[in-house]
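Why do we care about 3D structure at all? Because function follows from shape, and shape follows, mostly, from sequence. That is the central idea of this module. The next example makes it concrete: a single protein chain, its amino acid sequence, and then its structure expressed as tokens.
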Amino acid sequence: MKGPRTMARNWMRGLALLAGGLCFPALAVAQNQCVIPQSFPKSWAILPPQGEIVNTPLTGYILALSWSPQFCKERGDDKKNAAQCKGPGKFGFVLHGLWPDGAGLNDPKWCKRVSPVSAAVLKQNFCATPSAGLMQYEWAKHGSCVESDAERYFAAANRQYTRLRFPDMEALSRSQTDVGTFTTAFVAANPGLSADMVRVDVTILGWLKEVRLCLGKDYSPVSCPRDISGEGADTRLRIWPAR
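And the structure:
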């Protein structure tokens, strides 16, 4: 049986072959149909909430991917989500964030005060994270513990996002499926990943909400620690189709 290190190396080699020659936002052609807005709202600095600063050693990362059709089904009427849910683009899995992980539940967050994300960085990363507000929040809460500036943080996050490939979500949305079947399809689309490196989050009614991938400090995929929760393989899963 191959060990985690071997699987991780195979994953990186396989994805390098798949991603060779692509440049962001070329991935959007495959699973997101992205139209970048001409302008973005002015960013604002988010200060660390009192009592929530956690500066603790980093043990790895969680790459969080939201299923945009479900998000827009629930929150699409909110004006602040218009660019993602009401605009001309069409989104599938979007990058929620790259979260630093710590030992147990003691994860680094709000590590320092940060400046607003510039319009140039918002534009550069919109096709992965189609929300200026979310990008500012992710940079302040998580990126402040990862990189020295927003551009470097989102570049690191997008390197992991653009390596991924996704299963046929349209077919899965039409089928009676469960978390185990979905995870198997997701793993099959990404050579070298295994089911223990993937966690699936669903709504209270069983709709696909988010997929989380566990990464080591070198960004190679690893088995998820016990504190990274997810649904069991036999949990019924429904998938809201892309519009």
